[in-house]
């Protein structure tokens, strides 16, 4: 039976890979449906929080796994050149990025599970362990692999509609001008019916180069941002969970780090996008403790209540959010996560 099951699993896996590669849009719809299921389960059955987090984490894992399938299929024409470079090491940048992304996807589920099993004490132990592991991994990427100003999570969802065309461009297929503009070689142009008439990706994106090297003061600013979760957890241990000091320390670190990094000249477009997202994240401090309990909670509840009563067909969607807003705020809008 065991000898028969292994080939069967391989065949099923091959069929699944072929289906995902051939139907990326349907795969996206399936992942979105699973996430909606986790939302509607909240509060409707016993242990709904744990179950909904499990389903949500599974959907994120599914998305990450399917992205890797689609990306590897799109790059299948270049597999020979990739394989000549040798096998990736355990502590390669890609493996560390996958580790951080995986922790980002499952950390809430692990925290909720720890609280169910061991109470608040066990939950805080797990939080410290997870955030310490993530900080160490990000510091390794920053100081060893020289990857600066990374997104959170480091591996972002693929643009599945355009990944097939973009991955066909390699460094040997384009010419980079002194201005940085790239031009595709004539003998590497796609067929007429598949041309998008868009410029090929820049050389830094094709190579996966993280951009220009940062100066020492900018590396210190990025290090401050990476260490913010650990500093915040330590200040909570010293001053207490309800104190304003951890909140103020965290927002100060994030603001100073952001202003230092924005002063860098000639940032890559990807780095500018990451810094723009970090700027928007400063607004999230309005829904984080203790600012949420003292100021924003009552205003958000009044607005959502008015919205539910005024707009038809919105009630079934928004009432669960109103009922579990405080619980979700404590679960998702914490300060120790990057």
Briefly characterize the structure.
This protein is mainly alpha-helical. It is 66% helix and 2% strand. It has helices spanning 2-22, 24-40, 48-74, 79-83, 93-143, 163-166, 203-207, 216-239, 245-262, 269-281, 291-310, 315-323, 325-332; strands spanning 174-176, 182-184.
Supply database-style keywords:
338 residues; 2 strands; mainly alpha; 3 domains
Structure overview:
The longest helix is centred in the middle third of the chain and has 51 residues, at 93-143. The chain has three domains: 7-75 and 90-161, no CATH class; 170-205, no CATH class; 213-337, no CATH class. It has a two-stranded antiparallel ribbon with strand order 1-2. With 338 residues, the protein is mainly α. Helix content is 66%, strand content 2%. Helix 3 (48-74) packs across helix 5 (93-143) and helix 11 (291-310) runs antiparallel to helix 12.
Averaging pLDDT over every residue, what do you get? Answer: 81
**Rounded Rg:** 23 Å
Largest sheet: 2 strands, antiparallel
Query: Assembly type of the shown chains?
Result: single chain
> What is the helix fraction of residues, given as a range?
55-70%
């Amino acid at each position: 039976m065991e000898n028969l099951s292994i080939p069967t699993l391989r065949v099923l896996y091959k069929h699944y890979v072929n289906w995902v590669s051939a139907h990326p849009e349907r795969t996206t719809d399936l992942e979105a449906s699973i996430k909606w299921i986790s939302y509607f389960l909240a509060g409707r059955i016993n242990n709904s929080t744990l179950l909904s987090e499990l389903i949500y984490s599974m959907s994120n894992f599914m998305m990450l796994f399917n992205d890797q399938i689609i990306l590897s299929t799109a790059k299948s024409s270049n597999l020979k050149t990739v394989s000549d470079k040798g096998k990736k090491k355990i502590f390669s940048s890609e493996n560390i990025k996958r580790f951080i992304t995986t922790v980002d996807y499952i950390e809430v589920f692990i925290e909720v599970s720890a609280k169910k099993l061991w109470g608040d004490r066990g939950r805080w132990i797990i939080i410290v362990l997870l955030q310490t592991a993530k900080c160490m991994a990000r510091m390794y990427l920053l100081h060893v692999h020289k990857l600066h100003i990374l997104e959170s999570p480091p591996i972002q969802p693929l643009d599945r509609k355009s990944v097939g065309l973009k991955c066909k461009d390699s460094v040997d297929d384009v010419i980079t001008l002194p201005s940085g503009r790239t031009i595709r070689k004539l003998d590497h142009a796609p067929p007429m019916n598949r041309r998008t008439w868009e410029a090929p990706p820049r050389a830094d994106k094709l190579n996966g180069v993280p951009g220009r090297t940062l100066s020492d003061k900018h590396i210190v600013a990025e290090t401050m941002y990476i260490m913010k979760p650990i500093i915040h957890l330590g200040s909570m241990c010293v001053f207490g969970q309800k104190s304003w000091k951890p909140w103020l320390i965290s927002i100060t670190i994030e603001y100073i780090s952001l202003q230092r990094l924005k002063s860098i000249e000639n940032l890559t477009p990807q780095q500018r996008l990451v810094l723009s997202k970090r700027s928007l994240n400063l607004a999230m401090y309005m829904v984080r403790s203790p600012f949420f309990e003292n100021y924003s909670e009552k205003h958000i509840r009044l607005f959502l209540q008015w919205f539910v009563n005024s707009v038809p067909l919105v009630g079934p969607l928004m009432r669960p959010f109103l009922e579990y807003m405080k619980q979700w705020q404590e679960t998702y809008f914490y300060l120790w996560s990057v």
